[in-house]
Please model this.
Amino acid sequence: MSEMSREILSVGDLNRAIAASLEDRFDTVWVSGEISNFKAYDSGHWYFSLKDEEGQIRCVMFRGRNGQVGFIPQSGDLVEVSANLGMYVPRGDIQLTIQTLRRAGMGGLYEAFLKLKAKLAKEGLFDEERKREIPTHPRSIGIITSPQAAALKDVLSTLARRAPHIPIVIYPTLVQGPDAPAGIISALKAAEKENAVDVILLVRGGGSIEDLWAFNDEQLAYAIANSSIPVVSGVGHETDFTIADFVADLRAPTPTGAAELAAPRKDQLLQELDAIQQALLQRINQRVEREAQTLDQLALRLGHALPNPDRMREQITSWRLRLNQAWSVRMENWKRNQSHYQSQLEMLNPQRTLERGYAVILSKENEKLHAVRKPIELNTEQGYQVQLAEGQAEVIFAEVTSKRP
Model:
């Protein structure tokens, strides 16, 4: 290939290609290091670097995620993070978008978790062949959780919205602390003994690895595996995994998700529309987060008293306006497309053809009506049904003369 025939990329195109390659190549990664240059902006987003003796990497943690951390990190803190690897295109920097952040030093619990997970996997407790199907339309649903848990309120609200006709039985128990595993096991046995529910939701809200440790109990894992009633686990947030999740017949990302899986809507179309809505909201949130990071960078430049700050503020306002206008145009296009499709369907309606003066001749054979398409099918010996725009008529032909078109 000659030099003249090669594609020449802009810097932005090259950075976007690198960002896409990184996102496709790497799944969520866990990284440990020391926090450096920590900054919390008024927007609620956190910016910092993770470093060790061999290198460092820039990080960003958006407001929706850092609200679940439980403490404000400081420069010099040793932490462990789960993150997506990508690139901030305008600056060309490789960065980690942090999903979860915790203090370092939880490795011992995690090692115990991995050992128990390996043991139970070897025994076959996680095998898909062992797991039972969740009933599509359960006659009743059991919930095992703490009566004081916020997760219970979310689950009850979701079930009331999606399936208010299904009875609910609550089996109260502790879901945190040393006594929690025994309490959960007792609740499972009570549900089996009563035999009043078709599916059990084992739910708890999010928390640290210590908060969720009751769901990593070995005896509880055996109790879930041996339960005669299918169990749906909804423990913690989407990124939290416990032994109970692996043993359960179905794992939901959240307590609310468990309720949705146990009582799905009957209308398949509404489910598809909901999936489209969730995908759209995710894209919008991603776009908003990217734009929020850009705004934070512009705010930083304004704070450093760059020349003509008033003009820069005007540009920010203009970009916000353009973003809103672009979104409005996109929505109008979607509305026009919907109207176009509706008009196309209306044009294909057979009733419209009849209203233009056409008619359909129906012949009855073997107690079934079918449309007459050839003159040879007409005769004077039987009756026919003529379908018109405003009704139908029974006719008998006195004479039939066939003509070729």
